[in-house]
Request: fold
Amino acid sequence: MTFKPLALLMLTAAAALAQPSFEAPPPPTAPVADAGRRQADYFQRVDEVLNWRAARIDLKDPAKSLDMGAIAVLLTRNEHVDLCSQRVIALMKEPGTGPFWMFPTVCVAYAGRDRLSPEARSAIREAWRTARQLRGDTENHWVMYYASLYLMAELYPDEPAASWYSGKTSAENLAEARGFLLHWMDLTTTVGQGEYNPCHYIGEYAIPLLFLSTWSRDPEMRQRGHMMLDWLFAELANNTLNGVLRGPNSRADEGTAIERWNALTSYFCWLLFGNTPAPAGYGGWGVYFAPLAKNYQVPEVIYRLATDRPDDYVQRDRARTRRRWRYSDELSPAVYKTNYLRRDYAVGSTQGGLIDPIQTHAWDVTWAEPDPRGKHNTLFSLHPHSSPRAMQAYFSTYPEAMITAVTFEGKPSYDSPDKILGSSPFERIFQDLDTVVALYDIPPGERFPQVNGFFSKDLVNVTESPSGWIFAQGGNTYLAYRPLAPYHWIPYLHYAGGWAKEKLPVGGRLLVSPHLKNGTIVQAASAAEFPSFAAFQAAVTALPLQFSLEPVPTVRLTTLRGRQISFTHGQTPSVNGTPVDYAAWKLFEGPHLNAEVGGRRLTITHGRLERVLDFNTLTITDRVLPPAGR
Reply:
């Protein structure tokens, strides 16, 4: 046996500890039973983020490496405070505008309120007097804006209107901010979020809520912030597969639509649950959550919901669309979400229609991967709708330049016929367990008269059967895809970021079906259910299926689960002869999350563990349910 010197062993251990989690092997997905170890592991992950960010600061060149996130980390660690003060003064000479400048500045203002020099604190205060702040135009913008304004008004109370960019007193700013925050919490807990299950934008909610729960002087607001974090992370836990968020999503992008893991949600799953690899750089915005992360821990019932899944389950929830300004009799119509989660895969969908014109991801099948990094482990289809009318419905700006402008402002694929992101007024979707039927009735003259089906580079055994079904395997999941109209294949080309100007090949193909009357059927199953891939193909091919495309697309299908689906575009679908009653859907309904529409009360359950978040009384109630049969 060869023995290494002690010093070398210590260096090796230190190097292993220093390796960031996004470069390490994937963590185990099994739950950690011991609460003390869970907390220790969580705190270690928090410290890893802080240590990693601090180590990347070049103290000899602070102008390049010392941004507001780095300053917040150093202030939290009480390191290089004088340098932080100097850098804050420099940064405040050219303050930014809007929520993405406001909340980092709030983080530094509070982290440094007892550490920064008086000159640095004065520089921050002066910037909030002189720099006009734009509120933004989306739900996450408003939450960040008003949480930031609320906390700054609390930090500087009783000051006159002339000392604020808004021209309002501290008390008036506080009242306005509080009014919106309570309104948003009320909307979310009664009719759901407009930006439901967001891939990257979850940070824009979690971070300001953590700020409120930690720093607000008002105990009611602190309690509200904590309860909303529980609400947000309970829904995240319930919609992930081994820490990977899957569809449907109100706000996604080209990257997260295909590489489901590569999102800020994975940072929060890694940090809070420890069951998926961290994204590179801890998701960027994650650095603003880490300084206060030890002030919040997910309760065990949410942790178990994320990590302990012994049984398959169906969850049916409601949300709402982005606010509509034109062409609608409803301000924010309901969105009906269905999710079916199994050990090997998950299937999720909305009912379709125009939900968000740019970034909606309406449905998918996502399969589990031992290491999801770089894997395009998903299958879906969509109509690539692009129109000025759709943009005008949701944005209150001049219509002429809308489409051109949005493609240069972080959404490059919006006006591309081969895009894989967005919703369409001509798409209708129905899901029953692990079967999805998507129907398309596209009018003549539509700019992109086609349906795009995404086929991943990671699919194997792709087989185009004479029956019309296309079979494939992803991980331990068998997949059957049935286009209802003729199609051809093109390579999938990808925008590698919101500001990318060039499409690049990243593998995978698009099934393009250029027909106005159209549809897609997808059936998923675990490979373990069949003796072979051929047996799965035979079972699907034998399923009773009738469809027609005229006058509108119609499907009648018996699924692998023996359930009879009848679905016609524009009509209510039925299962086993019973129409789906969307009006009876609750805000959350399933084995783990339950809430009534209008109820302001969420019950979170896993096994015998239960937590109730009641916004009517602002109380959190935990209990252990009696054993079954008692």
